[in-house]
Amino acid sequence: MAIIFYNTLTREKDQFCALDDMKAGLYTCGPTVYDYAHIGNWRTYIFEDILRRQLEYRGYKVCHIMNITDVDDKTIRGALAKGIALDDYTEPFIKAFFKDRDSLNVEAANVYPRATRHIEDMVIIIKGLMKKRIAYRTEDGSIYYDISKFLGYGKLSHFRIDELKAGARVRSDEYEKAQVSDFALWKAWDEADGNVYWDTELGRGRPGWHIECSAMSSKYLGQTFDIHTGGVDNIFPHHENEIAQSEGLSGKKFVNYWMHSEHLLVDGRKMSKSLGNFYTLRDVISKGYSPMVFRYLVLGAHYRSKLNFTWAGMDAAKAALDNLYEFMGRLDKENSTGLDSAVERASAAFEQAMDDDLNTPVALAAVFGLVKEVNVSGHGGREVYQAMQKFDGVLGLKLAENAKSAALEVPAEIEQLLEERQKARKAKDFATADRVRDEIAAAGYIIEDTPAGPKLKRKNT
Ligand code: AMP
Ligand code: ZN
């Protein structure tokens, strides 16, 4: 029952082995709260949720930390443009993030540390790096990381530093690989930062983005921990720099498994704020889709494949998810129907897929395999319902909550036919009553005569 994960660090599928028996430490880079998260961001957070749920399914106690980047170049720019305090600027985006998280049935992390509340922890690391002469101060009082002092620089992004032309120093939080260079740990205050600064032992200023995650991850998970994740765009420079900072200071391995999800695309390009080609969850909901449909769309692709977002794709996801909800509604929760072997086969296929680097499309195919088998047999019972619930513990599609009662889905014309049949029966016109019953059956419904009167059910097809 080994779980296997593709590890960006080794570029292999590695068997997962936690540092501390059945406890797993998981750090996920959280939102930069300068705006509402878009659904591309949510693709990554849903992948991380699936990862966590699968670890829990396999019995791990997961300690999940997701930071909130509430100070960086973009948040400061936003707050200054509005002329309000940084905390006031970021607050609505933090609130919206938690609301979306709940709508998407993403489990809450154990801690959501905020960068602005951990400045002292960052200062301690930067001081340590200066003491080791890995970091140096520039004329303006800023402090930079000297990448030539860290031999492993490039090991996550898989480049060799000596093969690249080292660029000048970079002050900005985000930059491209072509600009490999010393990066800012501490940015001395200048006018562009307005009223955003901290007076610390390092002087007046604010942290660079990368040091935030080194500080908050080690604070809550220790200097070495199990899994660190993000989207592929985080590999360079963010995660590369986190490794340099953390390992440069501790001399120990920072993280054993690095996992990255591929992007959500629109028309073949990364969904992003800067390209203006993004949708928020609010956009999805206002088009009439439940957030669960988006979650299903995400699970339909492997997390390491690019996924092109289209409304047609959302419609297909909605149809498939409705099938599952209807299926759940048709199951008999009380009684067994002797389908244990079908359930066992589906469970084995589901588990094998999820253990193999979280292969959600194959796991969903296993679920639909069971649906098909049950539909052929005509009626699924308790054992099928329980298996579906177990699968949903990992998938998080709220199958039980949304189970559709077939009786409630009856179209008006069928209700009318049922009334006709009742009238015919009262009048002892059994030929008509039977004909109408057949008509109802042809439309996919069966009549159950109960002491409380006739009830319609969807036929298992
Ligand atoms: P940010 O708020 O920009 O720091 O991004 C938050 C997370 O979303 C990071 O892990 C990014 O890698 C990820 N991300 C950004 N854009 C996309 C996208 N189009 N598809 C998937 N993940 C993304
Ligand atoms: Zn981070």
List the keywords.
five-stranded antiparallel sheet, 14 helices, Rossmann fold, Isoleucyl-tRNA Synthetase, Domain 1, four-stranded parallel sheet, binds zinc ion, binds adenosine monophosphate, 16 strands, alpha/beta, 461 residues
Summarize the structure.
43% of the residues lie in helices and 16% in strands.
The total count of strands amounts to 16
What compounds sit in this structure?
Answer: adenosine monophosphate, zinc ion
**Range of helix content:** 40-55%
- Which CATH class of the largest domain? Alpha Beta
Layout of secondary structure:
Layout: E1 4-7, E2 12-15, E3 23-28, H1 39-57, E4 61-66, H2 73-82, H3 86-103, H4 119-131, E5 135-137, E6 143-145, E7 183-188, E8 198-200, E9 203-207, H5 209-221, E10 225-231, H6 235-250, E11 255-261, E12 264-266, E13 269-270, H7 281-286, H8 291-299, E14 307-308, H9 311-330, H10 340-355, H11 360-377, H12 382-395, H13 412-426, H14 430-442, E15 445-450, E16 453-458
Parallel strand pairs: 3-4, 3-10, 10-11, 12-14
Antiparallel strand pairs: 1-2, 5-6, 6-7, 7-9, 8-9, 12-13, 15-16
Bound molecules: adenosine monophosphate and zinc ion.
